[in-house]
Design goal:
4 helices; two-stranded antiparallel sheet; rod-shaped; mainly alpha
């Protein structure tokens, strides 16, 4: 994770593609197990089935990340009217005064800025926690996929 969220449609599409591929792989793994009469691996689950499960899990995570991101963006957009009314804008993760003169009383603008900053902090904090969780899960998946790769090469 580099801190860039990417395009929500592309991220969701990737998640959907991973999940479709997982279903295809699971079907192929089941067919293969039926043809050879069993599974391999110590857990009784074939590496192909484990891979399919992992692809499905990561695909679901990416789709959930996208949904949560769209909801977070919506929560930020709900602040727009109040921001405009107080001559404030969002600059990154900060609520700041809009450029130029303001017709809004300074004390009112200050109180509104503090309140809107608090609301924005809640959204950005939740999103940061989600990003950290996704990064941990993707690292876990990388390790699982590396282990499966080594197993598939017979090392």
């Amino acid at each position: 994770m580099t801190g860039r969220e990417g395009d929500p449609a592309s991220t969701s599409a990737l998640g959907g593609t991973l999940r479709r591929q997982a279903l295809d792989l699971a079907d192929l793994a089941a067919d293969l197990a039926a043809d050879v009469g069993g599974t391999s691996g110590t857990s009784g689950t074939s590496p192909a089935t484990t891979l399919a499960d992992e692809l499905d899990r990561v695909g679901a995570l990416l789709q959930a990340w996208t949904t949560d991101g769209v909801e977070a963006a919506h929560r930020v957009r709900t602040l727009d009217e109040r921001l405009r009314a107080a001559d404030l804008v969002v600059d990154g993760t900060r609520v700041v005064e809009a450029p130029g003169p303001s017709r809004v009383e300074a004390l009112r603008r200050l109180h509104e800025r503090e309140h809107l900053q608090e609301l924005l902090n809640r959204v950005t904090s939740a999103r940061a926690k989600d990003a950290a969780s996704l990064a941990r899960e993707l690292a876990r998946s990388r390790d699982t996929l590396a282990r499966l790769s080594v197993l598939a090469r017979g090392r």
